[in-house]
Amino acid sequence: MVAAEAFAREGTQTSLKAIARAAGVGIGTLYRRFPTRESLVEAVYRNEVIRLCDAAAELLRTLTPAAALPAWMERFVDFMAAKHGMADVLRAVLLSEEDRMHTRDLLRAAIATLLDAGTAAGGVRPGVDPNDVLMGLGGITMIAGEEDQRDLASRLIGLLLHGIATAAEGPGGTA
């Protein structure tokens, strides 16, 4: 988590000594677990993907489906902003199409979980394709992925939600 925040804030060239210090470990401990900067970036990325995907079920345990879906979408935008800070190294580390497709499959499954819950609750139109939602979110992050564009990303998420909501429900679960 410490490394993810540092990479999102300062990029992958951030000081590994500072990351180790913030994590409460020595630099030797960091290098024993992650012998290269690239191995740390890859581990952070994979951990963040899992955390984001796991958040779908966690949000559904504490929120209504109408509230869980936009909350997860906002987390997705934050994830993509953090990923942007690691992009230079990730391009070298995640070379295979298999790696990229595995990540997309995990994200699609998380979105499907949220959409299915929303459909069952009556707030999401039946038949919404999780891949379409993922592509829409990807477009939003490309357009409004910069930190100073965060409000725009939230507004665009609202438009995306409006497009998948049933006629009886508006974005955020209100009629």
Q: What's the helix and strand layout?
A:
Elements (H helix, E strand, L loop, with lengths): L1 H9 L5 H8 L3 H7 L3 H26 L2 H21 L1 H7 L3 H25 L8 H15 L5 H15 L11
Describe this entry's structure for a reader.
The structure is a single chain. It contains 9 helices and no strands. It is an all-alpha fold and 175 residues long. Helix 1 (2-10) crosses helix 5 (65-85) and helix 5 (65-85) crosses helix 9 (150-164). 76% of the residues lie in helices and 0% in strands. The protein is elongated and about 55 Å long.
Q: Got a strand count?
A: 0
Give the biggest beta sheet.
none
Strand content: under 5%
Ends distance: 38 Å
Q: Which percent bin holds the helix content?
A: over 70%
The ordered string of helix (H) and strand (E) elements is HHHHHHHHH
Overall mean confidence score, pLDDT: 86
- Low-confidence segments, ≥5 residues, pLDDT <50? none
What structural class do the secondary elements suggest?
mainly alpha
* Number of H/I helices: 9
Shape descriptor: elongated
- Radius of gyration (CA) equals 18 Å
Name some characteristics of this structure.
76% helix, 175 residues, mainly alpha, 9 helices
Short description:
This protein is mainly alpha-helical and 175 residues long. The chain has nine helices and no strands.
